[in-house]
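Good morning C.,

I know you're traveling, so I'll keep this short. The sequence:
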Amino acid sequence: MPAVSHVTVHFTGRVQGVGFRYQTLQVAKEFEVSGYVMNLPDGRVLLEAEGQGADLREFVEAVQERMSGYIRKAELAEAKREPRFQGFTIR
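The tokens, ready to paste straight into the viewer:
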């Protein structure tokens, strides 16, 4: 399988209990991406996603735009790797 772009994003702010994961799932439906979003015990939200470069970047930007009032900081790491996900889920 060809490598795909992968991002890991940690969102900090008032990101739990505000529908962040649900909104991220809704945004994911608009793009050709797969992965998951989940709450972390420390109050952050983790987003793991993969797809083609432009689609993936636009997806992350759309999540940040939609939830901008709740995000204080977004830490993003990018890589190329073999695909690991099918579909997009909330964990």
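Safe travels,
E.
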